[in-house]
Design goal:
Strand content: 15-25%
Largest sheet: 7 strands, antiparallel
Oligomer: single chain
Structural class: alpha+beta
Number of strands: 11
Distance between the termini: 43 Å
Order of helices and strands: EHHEHEHEEEEEHEHHHEEHH
Number of helices: 10
Radius of gyration: 20 Å
Helix content: 40-55%
Shape: globular
Length: 331
């Protein structure tokens, strides 16, 4: 009976999707470079969503995952196959059993698979005799075991699997430009999970975060998780733009603005204290913290305006050319 184990090293540092993607693509030779570059080119670093009560789900609830992830992978020029949905759907078992097969096929080719645990993790192997997959969550060195029959089942109602194939070369300047357009879209879209409006995206995410902190009725662990993720992603953007401005000198101003924002991040981290073995926001510093977040929001808004101007000076076939069948998908 086949037994496949890949040598992947997933570490939780950024958003769990990027942590998983980076481990898989670098091991498969499909991406070279630091993680912040991958996070920037896919547009994932720019995603910022906040639940009105600062629930931990905020960090990964940045929209319909297929629609949110595919543009970033397309921007890398990498072929991908993915499936996802709700486990309550009556067809779930059919899709699940199909996924079991193509996940194994991907592992046989030496390419890991992204999997919603939750959060996102990496399937790095399987044992046909025991009918199990091995999954890394990025937090511990020990792999979790998921039975084939339990693939996709978890305490949330969602399931997600994504595999990767070949790659075509896309010019770096094209990838950078598209990543900025993805950033503009995220910043300008207030709600990514309609019809629900309890999660704010982009610029509105700042408003949700500031308001919840001021009102005081929020999830303590979620607030810390959101701020941790926020600080890390803004550091990623800062590093990414420092490289990108070598390709587009017009990004100098945006890079400077994010460098100014990065100076605020250690101050934000300083208001997270440890009490009774858990980390939480120091409520005595909330007024000061929200002031810093408001300043960061202004800086980021100005930086996105720089992206907007650069984008406006360049052709954008993806958004300006209507397919011959019109704006609707063919039936």
């Amino acid at each position: 009976m086949p037994n496949v184990r890949l040598q992947l090293d997933m570490k939780r540092e950024a958003k769990s999707y990027i942590d998983s993607l980076y481990a898989i693509l670098t091991a498969a030779g499909l991406f070279e470079g630091p993680k912040y570059r991958l996070s920037g080119l896919t547009g994932m670093a720019f995603k910022f969503t906040v639940h009105e009560r600062l629930l931990p789900l905020s960090v990964s609830a940045y929209g319909e995952w297929i629609n949110e992830h595919r543009p970033g992978i397309d921007n890398l020029g990498i072929y991908t196959v993915l499936d996802a949905g709700r486990t309550r759907h009556p067809t779930f078992r059919h899709y699940q059993q199909d996924a079991v097969q193509w996940v194994k096929e991907s592992l046989d080719r030496g390419v890991g698979v992204i999997y919603w645990i939750p959060e996102f993790g990496v399937i790095d192997g399987y044992d046909e005799e025991d009918q199990v997959f091995f999954v890394q969550d990025g937090w511990s060195g020990e792999s979790q075991i998921v039975l084939y029959d339990n693939l996709g089942l978890n305490f949330t109602e969602f399931w997600y699997c994504q595999a990767f194939g070949g790659k075509v070369d896309i010019p770096l300047e094209a990838m950078i430009l598209e990543s900025l357009r993805l950033a503009i879209y995220d910043w300008d879209t207030p709600h990514k999970t309609l019809p629900n409006t309890d999660i704010g995206s982009g610029q509105l995410a700042y408003d949700f975060l500031i308001r919840a902190l001021k009102q005081g009725d929020y999830d303590e662990g979620g607030a810390v998780y959101i701020l941790d993720s926020y600080c890390y992603s803004r550091e990623e953007i800062c590093a990414y733009l420092q490289e990108a401005r070598a390709v587009y000198p017009e990004l100098d101003e945006a890079s400077r603005l994010y460098e100014e924002l990065a100076c605020i991040l250690p101050l934000i981290r300083a208001v997270i204290i440890e009490t009774g073995g858990s980390r939480q926001v120091d409520r005595n510093e909330v007024e000061w913290l929200t002031g810093q977040l408001a300043a960061a929001q202004q800086l980021e808004d100005l930086a996105v305006d720089v992206f907007r101007k650069l984008s406006g000076r360049q052709p954008d076939p993806r958004r300006s050319i209507i397919p011959r069948w019109g704006i609707h998908t063919p039936k």
